[in-house]
Amino acid sequence: MDKIKVTAHLLAPVVTGGGYMTLDGLLAALLFDDLQDVDAAHAAIPIRQTDGLHHASAAIMEASRERISFIAALRPGHSIDPDLIQKNKHGQLHRKFDTSLTNVLNSYALLTAPTVTWYAEGDADHIERLISPVQFIGKRRASGFGRVARWQVEPDDLDGIEGPFGEPLRPVPVGMFKGDTSHPIVDAAWRPAYWNPIHRTACYAPV
Amino acid sequence: MLQFFNDNFGRYLVEQSGDPVADARRALSSGHRMKKPGIPQRIASGWAVVRPGTSTMQFQLAAEGIAYSTQTRYEAFLAELDNWDRTPRMFIEFAKRPVPVDNLFRTFDLRQVRICSPTGVETFDFTKPPEKDGCKTHKVLWKLKTGGK
């Protein structure tokens, strides 16, 4: 296992819905695209683990931060003839049965920075093979956000868990963290799948 | 995290099935008997402070094991933060739309207070005044705390 620093050189700001965007999470998503099996994807992440904790940092960006909103036009997915449905007291269709387009405003954070950096301990060659074809990261990739110009993988000293001053580089459960415990404790997912609230526990995490 | 929600709040509202996600989802989105007579209703307004032991909420349900309060959400949240005892809390704002389970987070530290609502999660440092572009709850609570300064 090699200690490495992974850098994505960006061409466009990154859109995020929150979360820490850890390198193991990114690799799990790439592996899932290929394997189409969540458990198999998680088992194949080429990152060192200690008691289930991946040695891979959260995304580190020195970014300017603003909010951005997108309108999604949604069409309720049903095929019932609206004439067959009882109307509301105003004689109109209940909103959830209305087949017209519904516009939903979704708000995200927009991070503008020249690079995104991760620290990790793992199989450098395998990690590089997985990430090198990736051209976009974050949300709204199809709209051109999070475009990556190039990836760089280089040796480093950090293990992806603790920074040089003992600060957490990723969410680490309180009982597993050996660094500077003056940092605030937060509820965070500490292992993939990061979207699953079952994986949330009291952690030291980057602020 | 969901165990905390279910153990201290959800179990008084719905029978526990052993699936913490499903149990929490049912507690937040299904109808519950009200204190006043009438049909069961979903928690569609008010707030809850989930804490180890007895949790408190505003919406007047018939469920026992939960304390009920007539304070506003900001009064209740501020009282909790002002009397912080370093044990975890879950601050929840209810609205017409159910709070998604994904939006539930505990607060462990005044430097990372999290307010959970149907539309998302507000996170702020309550040891410092709000930034100009800070979140609404931080601004309101800080104004209440400092007497409107």
Uncertain ranges of chain A: none
Briefly note the structural class of the backbone of chain B: alpha/beta
Tell me, what's the shape of chain A?
elongated
Order of helices and strands of chain A: EEHHEEEEEHEEEE
Give a short summary of the structure.
Chain A has helices at 23-35, 38-43, 124-131; strands at 2-10, 14-16, 49-50, 53-54, 64-74, 102-112, 115-122, 148-155, 172-173, 185-189, 200-204. By secondary structure, chain A is of the alpha+beta class.
Describe the 3D structure.
The complex is a heterodimer of chains A (207) and B (149). Chain A has 207 residues and is of the alpha+beta class. Chain A has two domains: 2-63 and 113-204, no CATH class; 70-104, no CATH class. Helices cover 13% and strands 32% of the residues of chain A. Chain A contains three helices and eleven strands. Chain A has a three-stranded antiparallel β-sheet with strand order 7-1-8, with helices on one face. Chain A is elongated. The model of chain A has no long low-confidence stretch (mean pLDDT 91). Chain B has one domain. Helices cover 25% and strands 15% of the residues of chain B. A six-stranded mixed β-sheet of chain B has the order 3-2-1-4-5-6. In chain B, helix 1 crosses helix 2 (20-29) and helix 3 (73-82) packs across helix 4. The mean pLDDT of chain B is 94. The chains are: A alpha+beta (207), B alpha/beta (149). The A-B interface holds A 18, 107, 184-187, 195, 197-198, 200-202, 207 and B 1-2, 20-21, 88, 101-102, 104-109, 111-112, 114, 120-121.
